[in-house]
Each structure stands twice: as structure tokens, then as C-alpha cells.
Design goal:
The complex is a heterodimer of chains A (130) and B (135). Chain A has a single domain, classed as DsrEFH-like (Hypothetical Protein Ychn, Chain: A). Helix content of chain A is 36%, strand content 21%. Chain A contains five helices and five strands. Chain A has a five-stranded parallel beta sheet with strand order 4-3-2-1-5, with helices on both faces. In chain A, strand 2, helix 2 and strand 3 form a beta-alpha-beta unit. In chain A, helix 1 packs parallel to helix 2. The longest helix of chain A has 14 residues. Chain A is globular and about 45 Å long. Chain A starts with a strand and ends with a strand. With 135 residues, chain B is an alpha/beta fold. Chain B is built from three helices and seven strands. The mean pLDDT of chain B is 96. Chain B has one domain: DsrEFH-like (Hypothetical Protein Ychn, Chain: A). Chain B has a five-stranded parallel beta sheet. Classes of the chains: A alpha/beta (130), B alpha/beta (135). Chains A and B meet through helix 3 and helix 5 of A and helix 1 and strand 7 of B. Chain B: InterPro entries: DsrEFH-like, Sulphur_relay_DsrE/F-like, Sulphur_relay_TusC/DsrF.
């Protein structure tokens, strides 16, 4: 089966991004496809490469970056939600006149159309949120 | 297989206090371009999103409630509001905005987009969907 995944809560405060990660890993291990994960609301905060959790804690961003590299999962961050919360890639930083960007490897910033498209193209859309 | 799916946006939260309602509406507006079969559901505190006379001046946030009246222009014409959620909050249909659309299949007659449904009917509406997005 082909799953689309939506993450709508932020990392560490909420378990949504962790549960989604475990779900995606298990689904792929069982032979399902997860072509895309979409990050919305505070979920976009998963994608900053500047978070530095204590060393004995999981690093949620790095888990996702590794998963994307290993299985080719398309990690899409909503541009409107990202801009509100200070998540920028190189293009957006320069377009908005900002002095830095913070998006981690494996994530890309794009529009909400990618969420709708995921809903159309997958068999099930699973939301991890509150 | 047809590329048209039934999308339901479930709005469960008050319009202000959190950003969920506003960011839900942003998805609806973008999603309209994909020409899917779209419905919106309002239940729990989500019914407050459709109340009339919202004023947000003191909050410093945008009053986005007028946008609901433009949804008909995007072919989003099915706004299901749960009766029990209204009643539990001391609200009735009279407290909600009037939201109309022009029915292109009926000589562009103006019709109400808001449909008050019971909790039991809401269950059926949800079961009937391909994609449910809950905000």
C-alpha cells in the first residue's frame, strides 16, 4: 500500500514526529511505500538543522534526514508555515533578505499543493498531530 | 481510475487561540485548485469558526472569517456543521454567518453552503471520504 504522511505538531514538545517516524520505518520494512512526508503547522520545526538536543536524547531531524537518504522519502516542508516560523532554505533566505538559512539535508520547502497531491496519489493519508 | 477524490477538512478548534483554523483554511484554498470533491466539517469548538460578528482588533491577528464567504467561488460549497456541537456551546444556526454559493447546475441559483447535520450524520459523511484532514 502507498501511504502519505502528514505531521502537524512540533518536535520534542509533542510525540507526533516520533510516532510518524516509527510508522514510516515500520511501513517501509513491511514492504509498503511512503513516497512523501509533509510537515505542516509546528511540524515544520522538525526540519531545522540548528536544533541541538542533549547527546543522550534522540535527534529527530537527523533521524528523518537519515530515513530520507536511506529510502528516498520526499520530506516536504510547507513554505507558508515555514516562513511564519523562521524555517528557510538558501533561496528563501536570499529572497527575504535574511542572513542565514537553517533547513536540514533531505528536507525541501514547497507549497501546500504537495499535500493535496500526496492525498490524491496515495492510498491512505495518515495524520500525526494533536 | 478517476483522479477525483473526496476530501474532507475537519475543523475542530476555535478560530483564534491557535493557528490551526487559519492554516486549515489555507489548505482548503490551495486545494481548491486541484478540482477535487471538497467538503468541510465543523465540530467541537470548530463551530465557532463560522460565527458572525467576529472582531479581532484587540488580538492583533487577522479576522479571516470573511474568507469563508468566498469559498463558493472556489467551488467549495459543502460546509457541514454538527448540530450537537452548536447546542453544547449555546449556539444555533442563527449565530452563524450566511454563506451562499451559486449552483451552476440549477441556473446559478443562490443556495446556502452551510448544512446543519447531526452527529450520526457526520459519522456517515466522514465514512464516505477518501481523504480526511483534521485540524
Amino acid at each position: 500500500m502507498k501511504f502519505g504522511v502528514l505531521i502537524s505538531e512540533g518536535p520534542y514538545t509533542h510525540e507526533a514526529a516520533d510516532t510518524a517516524y516509527n510508522f514510516v520505518k515500520s511501513a517501509i520494512a513491511k514492504g509498503h511505500e511512503v513516497p512523501r512526508v509533509f510537515f505542516y503547522h509546528d511540524g515544520v520545526n522538525v526540519s531545522t538543522r540548528l536544533s541541538v538536543p542533549p547527546q543522550d536524547e534522540r535527534n529527530i531531524q537527523k533521524q528523518w534526514t537519515a530515513l530520507a537518504a536511506e529510502h528516498g522519502v520526499d520530506l516536504v516542508v510547507c513554505i507558508a508555515a515555514a516562513q511564519r516560523r523562521g524555517i528557510l532554505d538558501e533561496n528563501e533566505a536570499s529572497r527575504q533578505g535574511k542572513d542565514a538559512n537553517n533547513i536540514a539535508e533531505g528536507f525541501r520547502i514547497s507549497g501546500l499543493g504537495q499535500l493535496i497531491e500526496m492525498g490524491i496519489q496515495t492510498d491512505r493519508l495518515v495524520t500525526f498531530g494533536d | 481510475m478517476s483522479d477525483t477524490k473526496k476530501f474532507l477538512y475537519v475543523n475542530r478548534r476555535a478560530p483564534y487561540g491557535t493557528i490551526y483554523a487559519l492554516e486549515s483554511l489555507e489548505v482548503v484554498l490551495i486545494g481548491a485548485a486541484f478540482e477535487q470533491d471538497v467538503s468541510l466539517a465543523f465540530l467541537d469548538d470548530g463551530v465557532f469558526q463560522l460565527t458572525k460578528g467576529q472582531k479581532t482588533d484587540g488580538l492583533g491577528v487577522k479576522n479571516f472569517s470573511p474568507t469563508f464567504r468566498a469559498l463558493g467561488d472556489y467551488d467549495v460549497t459543502k460546509l457541514y456543521v454538527e448540530k450537537e456541537s452548536l447546542e453544547e456551546r449555546g449556539l444555533s444556526e442563527a449565530d452563524l454567518q450566511e454563506i451562499m454559493y451559486e449552483d451552476e447546475d440549477d441556473d446559478w441559483e443562490e443556495k446556502p453552503s452551510i448544512r446543519i447535520v447531526s452527529r450520526a450524520e457526520m459519522v456517515d459523511i466522514m465514512s464516505d471520504q477518501d481523504v480526511v484532514l483534521s485540524f
